[in-house]
Design a protein that fits this description.
Length: 304
């Protein structure tokens, strides 16, 4: 089979996973309504509730539990562990990963990989720990990543919000990857080496939690540099970011043209009521059927 979707689900954000799955089934077109979905929960202490597992089963989701995660203190490792397992165990040509705090609003046609393309992805929103030249504070960290991954930078990207030109550094919230490229298992290998040595990015050095936050995503970039022959940059409507402070619009399209909407925490703690009311003021120009669906499903999925 051609393509499967991989997500991660834990008890404290299972409502987000359910919203994502429902959106894919409703708005993802003919392929999305039938696409195999695999939900991983690598941290045994955070498995979804029985109610959530039952709801997923009704939506045709395959639940994968008891996959070993060597970094239970680091939630972002879930996707790395899950995808490395999927690369080994699932018989699909292409694996698509979506962060659970995201919804699908249109068919995901651009995630089908053309001949010679190993990966379709968006660049990071802002530079953060990325690097453009040898004078950047994290140049030594990236040089170390390239050493252990067996690569050297070959492609540059422009960040989506900051418009900075940097060496390839991608947002791991939505990726489409050719399974036989080896990118996913290499991602796990690179991250294992980083945690073994403790060589983390130089960001807020007094707080380890902040320093390791970008390890998962930067290790992904290094694995891509090492393994991907060619990378396709997805259109701007994919992984479209919104935040509670009304950062609705990227420079080229409005939120109404978003294919997947990465809402982060914008729907949390009741803020979605106020957020969706912005439509009346012209700040959230989603279609009426999407708004109606959101109001119904945010409530039904357990958003407060």
């Amino acid at each position: 089979m051609l393509m499967a979707v991989i997500i991660c689900t834990e008890r404290h954000f299972e409502h987000k996973s359910l919203l994502l799955i429902r959106s894919l089934r409703v708005f993802g077109g003919e392929a999305g309504s039938a696409m195999p979905i695999f939900s991983y929960s690598p941290r045994s202490s955070n498995v979804p509730t029985d109610e959530c597992l039952h709801a997923m089963a009704k939506l045709g989701v395959h639940v994968v539990l008891n996959v070993h995660n060597p970094w239970p203190h680091y939630p972002l490792a879930n996707k790395v562990v899950a995808l490395a397992h999927a690369e080994r165990a699932l018989p699909f040509e292409t694996l698509v990963f979506l962060d659970s705090d995201q919804i699908v609003l249109h068919p995901l046609d651009d995630l089908r990989l053309g001949d010679g393309i190993d990966l379709a992805v968006r660049p990071v929103h802002r530079k953060n720990i990325g690097f453009a030249n040898q004078n950047d504070v994290n140049y030594a960290y990236w040089k170390y990543l390239y050493t252990i991954s067996g690569a050297w930078p070959i492609r540059k990207v422009q960040t989506t919000l900051g418009r900075e030109l940097i060496w390839e550094y991608y947002n791991s919230g939505l990726i489409s990857v050719r399974r036989n490229s080896g990118i996913l298992s290499h991602w796990l290998f690179v991250m294992q080496r980083v945690f073994e040595t403790g060589f983390f990015p130089n960001r807020d050095p007094d707080h380890l939690r902040n320093r390791i936050f970008y390890v998962e995503q930067s290790c992904f970039a290094a694995a891509v540099t090492a393994k991907a022959k060619d990378v396709s940059i997805l259109p701007v409507g994919y992984n479209y970011p919104i935040t509670p402070d009304n950062e609705w619009q990227l420079s080229t399209i409005s939120v109404s043209e978003a294919i997947t909407l990465h809402y982060h925490t914008a729907f949390e703690t009741g803020r979605w009521h106020k957020l969706l009311d912005q439509h009346e003021k012209g700040h959230l120009p989603l279609s009426e059927n999407v708004l109606a669906w959101l109001r119904s499903n945010l409530k039904n999925c357990g958003f407060p």
